[in-house]
Amino acid sequence: MLKMKLLAACAAPVLAIGMAVPAAAQEAPAPAQGSDDESVVPEVVVTGSLIRGTPEDASLPVDVIGSDELARQGSPTGLDLLKNLPTSNGVLGDANQFDSRSQGSEGVASVNLRGLGPQRTLVLLNGKRVVQAGTGIPVVDINLIPQSAIGRIEILKDGAAATYGSDAVAGVVNFITRSEQRGFQASGDYRYIRGSSGDYTGTVSFGHRKNGFQFFASFGYQHRSALPTTARDFTVQPYPNNPQGGYSGGGSPGNFDFNATVGGVAFTTDLGCTALGGFRSLPGSTTDRCFTNFGQFDNLVEPEDRYQAYVETKIEIADTLTFNASALYGSSSTRITTSPSYLPTLPPSANAASGGGGLFQVPTYAPALRDYCALFGAQSGCLTVGGVPQAPALAFPVLFRPFLLGGNPLFFSPSNPRGSAFSQRQSESIRFTAGLEWRIAPSLTLDGGLTFSEYVRGIEGTDTFGDLLQNALAGFGGPNCAFATPQSRAGLSATQIAAIAGTAGCTFFNPFSTGIAGNPVTGQVNANFAGTRAPAGFSLTPGAGLINDLPTIDNFFRTTRSDTFTQLFVADLVLSGQTGLRLPGGELSFAVGGQYRRNGFASRLNADANLAVNPCPGTPLDPAATCNPQTGALGFLGTNFNRDNNNDVFAFFAELQAPITDTINAQFSARYEQYSGNVGSTFNPQGRLRWQATPWLAFRGGGGTTFRGPPAENLGGNVTSLQVIGTAFRAIDISGNPNLRPERTTTYSGGVLLKFGGFNASVDYFRYQLTGPIESEPVQGIVNALFGTTGNANCNNPAFAALQARFTFTGAGCGIGNVQRLSTNLVNSANVTTSGIDFQAQYKFELGSNDIAIGGAGTYVIDYTTQSVTVAGVVVQPAFNAVGKLNFQTTAYPLPAVKGNVYLQGDRGIHSARLQFNYIDGYRDQRDALFLPNPGALAGAATLGGRNIAPFYTLDFTYRLALKTGTTISLSVLNFLDRQPSFARLDFNYDPFTSSPLGLNAKFGITQKF
Predict the structure, then answer these.
(1) Please, which pLDDT band fits residue 120 given cuts at 50, 70 and 90?
(2) Predicted model pTM
(3) Concatenated DSSP letters for 616-628?
(4) Sequence-distant (≥ 6) Cβ neighbours of residue 895 within 8 angstroms
């Protein structure tokens, strides 16, 4: 469907080209001898203004990164550029599956100006909006913008909703294409990265401009190769170094109660834990747990293929009328490489064999339990008589899983020797624009435009049907089991059920370490694997009880899929020009217009993930099964309903450019937007002023309000994310809210600009005051408020009853270790205030026959204060300053206080070289509880490392050779000091939002112009 729309989108400019070429040849006057209409420089619209001809040195704090500057930096990828951009923090792009703000965003890259969240940075392509991806946090996917077509990037470092509307809170990033290109250009590069097969790109573009007809087209391809966690030493560390470093207390080998009838329910480690590479609680600890590392099965960089095709045209229909159109198609394909299986957090229902007690059970007749108890004897803790178990083994839903250290048998292949689970991610985007520019008079222009864009995102996942897993534990697994349903076992006694288990097409699943041959990552061989021990009296036929078989696994291990569709339609009309009123500094210019936007969001789920198909854990076994609440059948990822959300926005806006004197220029703008539904309306004015005090000194400043309306997908439905609660990931349901209001921000800025000789510099102060930012309720704060440091501090406290009701617990009741899920909402959250200083400088001079430039840019964040967040009447996140902190699972992103770069650039003839130092300041992990004694696993010892995350810096070098043949050759050595990312108490042992895991890497590129 999307590709058909692409054909339709491309047809319009192609048809226009076919019609316009002969028309232009017939109607356009021939240029005079020696003239060249290609040399005409069109009047441009600067980012931050709707008025044509606004000078680039007006009051707007705009940074322009041109194609030459990008080339000098070694033509960085969009991700590399954004991570080094001083004004940007908390960037999506590298694998970061363990943070809720990036889950499901594999293959997506974002801009996050000021660290206010990528949803508060407006991204434009040639001044027009780009549809957001249907991810958990709405962001524009920079990866699908046609990088091969970009001529420059303009970054407006100020709120601009008065000009552009919703989302332009932190600023605007405008990608502008090389519309003026003539002829062909082709380029390609290869990037060497240790431990991977490297990255490579290829692009080709063509531009033409003649006789009132302009055409530009480009095609780009980018490939990223997988970088497994095992290729970097820092990613998998011993448990005592970082208990949060990819370890789970619910793994495989897991933790079980082998004597349920004695001493109550108490879970202890599977005794095969350490032989397979797990960490067992130290002697003297308060629990006996097996902690298993899932990080060794993941990737630091996922394999990815991206394509972009872009075409644009501009046709002078008449002397005063110009038609323009463009079409863009983008596609990306990647995956998430993840844990071999997830926790089955929902207990099996009574529809499953031996289910309904709030725990998973391995019955006494199961061969796996009998063999385990016989193998480990008294150490096993089994309650036996004559070697026969007298009590089932109980499994807490969050203390075990089907697969981990042994890999997942369904996924083993020559290209996947680790047995990691794979889930696909596909994105397709289409965008079509068309517009007419009517020059009513020499100083008056009417612009009308239409933009339609759509982003389709397909996300797969892997999970377990808990009731089918329980059936397999009890000997009623597999796709052909005659006794799988509760009706088929109705009326049978315990003895009869034990007799038919494992018969009539029914099979067993062995959850113990005895069913694992070894650890495919570390190479550890399990001497206790039943397949090599061949214990007497047991069958080694796969599925008979000791050796697991693929059909049984495939029956309970499911693939989920959700497809999201986001659409954006924009129609706008702008009248701009000069008023005829003359001020001392020049003529008063204006722009006035209106805009209509329609935002659409839809999601479609496959049967396994759809509550309408599988509303309850027991539904796969009995379609008539009921439950309250409806939790779905999946054990971990959660299920939802299909949903559709739309909203309409009507806007009216105006702008004035007032050259008050020759040295003072003012800009005034205002915008009114009306939203459909319960959202309401918003009015936002803004003013900016620039004073050229002397030829070398200028001042600029401004203030106003900006806003962000709730996107359509936030107004209803819900999504499920995975976040750490206690020692393992739990499912977090985030519900939409039809009563969300637009968030509003008041902005102030002021700066000084210096320019004399070869030196120029600027220093700007910024301040943002957000009111009612749209955020999900903070998980870490909710967990801390209810459970405290004891794990149950406020359980059953009447004052916390409403907060406690947000949690779903196992049958063991309220406690941090018993959490199955947490329900949260999207809300207009606590107010935020942030301020800081941007600075940049450059000095150019000649040294002999060399052109030298020394420069730098940076941002210093003074404060980022979030007021107290209240949930269910309880303050769950006290007010705090996020600057210089990791801000894990809070409403803020990681926010180093200082970020910047300095460079030395040298040019001589056809040679060019650049040395650049990039610096990100250190910051602190404010989760104080992580650094307290750990009695549960480390016998009271504390892990102190990682409280202070060290600064991260790289040194890059790029050399370019520009030959007279139109060939440019470049060689970049990036991070040539091989700086590893700073240690952080996170799953990959570093912060993917901030640092890079690549280490030293090198890139060779070549560009040819024809």
Answers:
(1) very high
(2) 0.90
(3) STTTTT-TT---S
(4) 89, 90, 115, 861, 864, 882, 883, 884, 885, 887, 923
